[in-house]
Amino acid sequence: MADKVKKRYLLPADYMADPSVHVFDGKLYIYPSHDWESAAPDDDFGSEYDMKDYHVLSLEGPDPLTSPIKDHGNVLDLKDVPWARRQLWDNDVVKGPDGRYYMYFPAKDKTDIFRCGVAVSDSPVGPFKPMPDPIRGSYSIDMAVLADEDGEYYMYFGGIWGGQLQRYEDNLAKDCGTSYPADDAPAIPGRVVRLSKDMLQFAEEPKPVVLLDENGNPIQVKDNERRFFEASWVHKYKGKYYFSYSTGDTHKLCYAIGDNPYGPFTYKGVILTPVVGWTTHHSIVEFGGKWWLFHHDSAPSKGINRLRSLKVCELKYNPDGTIRTIEGLDE
Ligand code: FUB
Questions:
Q1: What CA–CA distances, in Å, run from 15 to 53, 108, 127, 236, 328?
Q2: Atom 1 of ligand 1 has which residue's CA nearest to it?
Q3: Are 283 and 290 in contact (CB under 8 A)?
Q4: How far is the CA of 320 from the centre of ligand 1 (A)?
Q5: pLDDT in tens, 194-218
Q6: 326 DSSP 8-state letter
Q7: Which end of the chain is more exposed for a tag (fewer CB within 10 A), N or C?
Q8: pTM for this one?
């Protein structure tokens, strides 16, 4: 059974999606994608998600359900990223060891391959200055970075179908177009990689984020109710690592728990049941002594997939550390 909980739309005046949320120096910041009414085609490659800039939002008070939201405007524009051609998708921002803020973002390069860019700012609200080239060896979409307590930073990324992850094996591009593993093979995993000390490159080869079922077996391709699709996020709760993600074509946000940042992670359940709209995406953050789920849906645009709106609601744990499932549809 899913809980029906109080939810709030954060910014009714503008369409935004894919919220990455962090608390920096006691204040809550939201780093979304910025949807707009693009005429790009609705094809199998996600071209309709044609975003061309990023805004930063901040919560101007203690309560995500009621406090004012401030829009800090355009903090990074596609036209200022020398290597990028189109589609600024889900980004994430962390505060680095030098006190500066690092934004990691996917965009398609001039050959229409998704890469990961880095942009840097002295302030959590930007503006962010892009590096001239994407991260060496980067690929696919939906970067989310965990600043772990040991001082290391781990990036989680990847998305299948339009996110292009199926094109890579052992971090090398395969000459396969859109081929997928057989149905009874382990599902295509997301990736995790430790960042370099200067925050600008990978410190190692990306590794697979292995998702196991309750019997310790890898979740299979055909298990599309539970397999990874896109929208990685990792948070820590009581010393455990919670890897959460979207199941894509079954439209759920699910999670799995592990003992370290690399996993493996054991599947535990659904965080959010399907919302209005094809995509579902989220972040989970502790703020003001409570836990919060930030996500999006397409209800305000009356179901237009490319026009999504940001939402927040409280997230609760059971005593055993599992997460209570939230109903995605409102009354
Ligand atoms: O916003 C574009 C894409 O849609 C994101 O990268 C995916 O996670 C999905 O929300």
A1: 12, 21, 20, 29, 18
A2: 89
A3: no
A4: 31
A5: 999 999 999 999 999 999 999 999 9
A6: B
A7: C
A8: 0.98
User: Is residue 285 in a domain?
Assistant: yes
> Could you give the number of structural domains in the chain?
1
Q: Whose CA is nearest to atom 7 of ligand 1?
A: 231
**Integer Cα distance of 305 and 317 in angstroms:** 30
Q: Which of 89, 249, 280, 282 has most ligand 1 atoms within 8 Å of its beta carbon, as the pocket-test mutant?
A: 89
Residue 249 φ then ψ, to 5°: -70, -5
In a domain, 326, yes or no: no
Residue 43: give its domain's CATH number. Answer: 2.115.10.20
Structure tokens at 88: 């600024």
DSSP for residue 186? B
Domain with 49, as residue range(s), is 7-315
Distance, CA of 45 to CA of 56 (rounded, Å): 26
Q: Which distant-in-sequence residues (6+ apart) come within 8 Å of 217 by Cβ?
A: none
